[in-house]
Amino acid sequence: MTTPLVAHLTDFVDELRRRGIVVGPSALIDAASAMEVLDLLERSRLREGLATTLLVDHAHRGVFDRVFDLWFPVGAGMRTVTEDLPRDEDGNLDVEAVRDALAEMLADDAAAGDGRLEQAIAMIVDELGRYGSTKGEAFSAYQAISAVNPQTLIAKIAAAMAGGDGARPGTEPLYRQAARQKATDLRAAIERETQRRMADRNGRDKVGAYAVPPLPENVNFLSAGAKEQVEIRKTIEPLARLLAAKLETRRRRAHRGAVDVRKTLRASMSTGGVPIELSHRKPRPGRPELIVICDVSGSVAGFSQFTLRLVYALRQQFSKVRVFAFVDTVDEVTDFFDHGEEDFGAAMHHMISTARISTRDGHSDYGNMLAGFVADHVETLTHRGALLVLGDARNNYHDAHADALAELVERARHAYWLNPEAKEHWGTGDSVATDYAEVIDMFECRNATQLGTVIADLLPV
């Protein structure tokens, strides 16, 4: 490899590291070795070769691909176009005819191999995605995708793949599944071409600041869309396995009990009353109980669901897990997850729609919840258990009842509050987080990375 190419690869890896992807020195060496034998003009093979050597977690592939497209673009400037797409009488692209042509190209694998599909995408971005901005000419992936609307091409692609006469009996679902993937690939290709053109205009760093998404484990719980929530869910099981191993190791290492003062003083008689060696009580290993109280209102429900998934993945670390949910009224919902649907999301939906968690105005009321928990469920807390409260503490200007929270904290052996809002927003508007933080240890928990760190450090052994 030439020196400039080595430097470019090193800079690319440094960018991956800045995005949170862990790449060790040996992986960088493997990537350099792969580039020596790969044809650098075959971008798809180069992409796969670098992904194989540099990535450990497949969930990071989306971020890797976006960074790769910025550092190893297909080219610079306008592409050379040898074939034109259908146009109307005024010389503009005929959108309906273009969509039909795209369906035929997507159904034909040869179109991708000979470059026709790439040229078509370049023309679509150039003519349907172009717009004027205050800084001059620019391109919008959203504008181009809206014009093409890839999701509506699925039926046409499936029909074209089946030969135009409809799918053979029993095979239509396979065609539609393949067609859905090709429509998704078309959307991604338009986004890549738009990103390439904007990087030519504004520079790689500026485009990367908004075009490259965060890693799934760093996505903010409260702002995650449906697609991002799917990616976050994929991080829960691996995270749970790591935490379970960590908790089990901590439990094994905690082989000594508390200092036995009486035995220590008795043993010190042989050394003139100087306690040279400490005597310890026999340890009493046991798995603590865990009580979870979670806000399931509005966008906070997503954070609560992710945390409950993690807790239930770790439930073997506890003798018992009991879950209470609320919007303005608290109700025990343990049975929904212990004996409910296999699909955790379905169990969550069933719980929200049937449990007695909202009996007032339907807005979060932490004060009423805390007072109700003290009145109806306080006996569930013992000095051998831990309390975990999940919520943003936005109380809609109701009475906070911090005294009720103080009673719960007093009864539990450990008590923690996980808040999905940024700490600088605590106490603003209708938030009573700062009031509760004076009573209970409250921790910022905005993404899966923070969630895993907090759970690992706080859960008792």
Folded structure, characterized:
With 461 residues, the chain is α/β, with parallel strands linked by helices. The chain contains 20 helices and eight strands. The chain starts with a helix and ends with a helix.
Uncertain stretches of 5 or more adjacent residues? none
- Total number of β-strand segments? 8
How many domain units?
4
Largest sheet: 6 strands, mixed
CATH C-level category of the largest domain: Alpha Beta
Average pLDDT confidence is: 85
Question: Count of DSSP helices?
Answer: 20
Residues in helix, % = 40-55%
Structural class: alpha/beta
Numbering strands along the chain, what is their spatial order in the largest sheet?
A: 5-4-3-6-7-8
Distance between the termini: 52 Å
Outline: globular
From the alpha-carbon coordinates, what is the Rg to the nearest angstrom? Answer: 29 Å
CATH architecture of the largest domain: 3-Layer(aba) Sandwich
CATH fold call of the largest domain: Rossmann fold
Portion of residues in beta strands equals: 5-15%
Please write the string of helix (H) and strand (E) elements: HHHHHHHEEHHHHHHEHEEHHHEHEHEH
Pfam family, one: VWA_CoxE
Organism: Gordonia amicalis
Protein name: VWA domain-containing protein
